[in-house]
Amino acid sequence: MQSGYWILTHGIKGLGPAVANLLYFIHPTHVSPFNTAIVRGFNAVMHANMKLGRWDHYLAMRQRILEVNLEHRSLLSNDLGAIAGFLFDVGMDRYPLPPSTDDTAASEAWLKDLEAVRAQSTALARQLEANQQQDATHTEVQGWLRDLGHSLGYMVWIATNDRSRPYAGGKLVDGCISELPTSLSINGADTVPLIDVIWLHPDQTVVAAFEVEHTTSIYSGIVRLLDLALGSVTAAQRHLYLVAPDAREADVRSQLARPAFSRVAELGIKYLSYGALKEHRENIARFGAGMKPIEAIARLL
């Protein structure tokens, strides 16, 4: 913190928060971020009266933050990001502090608010975990299709927005083509590159396309498949699949019954369940050839 003491001794003003925040990114275990909300939170928690923009106040605040972070390291983190985030949330009135008096009514109200915050945090944590599981499952199924396509001798395309996802110790895009043929370009739309998995022949003609629909609406996936089948220069009927959990077949069928998807039946789009793909993918990879084994485990929608 020599820079802080140097600024303090030279009487330079207006650099407090800016310098502190820059130093935090360089030394996150020694320097705390510094802004209005953090100062407000610090004052509320520590019953202090620190001022923003004063280096003598910042240095005193930093020392106390270091002490508290060390004392409660198991609940916070090695760097000062967690405690700074806590102080910021308090300063933004996101977390109610316990009353400083012996007022029973105030204490009961605070406990009620605390329970509400805990319930909200638990719900958010569960939602985050569910989202992470959904992402992992979606990526896993894409990985199955990638590996199966390679085993059957096809080139494989992975959706542009999923290419960097981790899978099997590498990236989902490993071993896949980096560009789609220009024949799949569609005027006014950029949907085809977002199709989850596409298999292609060595001559770059499309063999099959797969949209993995784990929990979300199938509308966008159907639109992408329709664009591939009807909008590209080499428009032709291909093997098109909606890949979804076993329990979603009825939901997929009900959504496809909408008038907006009347062309789907003409294109022969099929439903491929996770269960069927998981059960048969290894045998198809070892003994299969062409699209016949995939067609055998898929169901017409």
Automatic annotation (TrEMBL):
<protein>
    <submittedName>
        <fullName>Uncharacterized protein</fullName>
    </submittedName>
</protein>
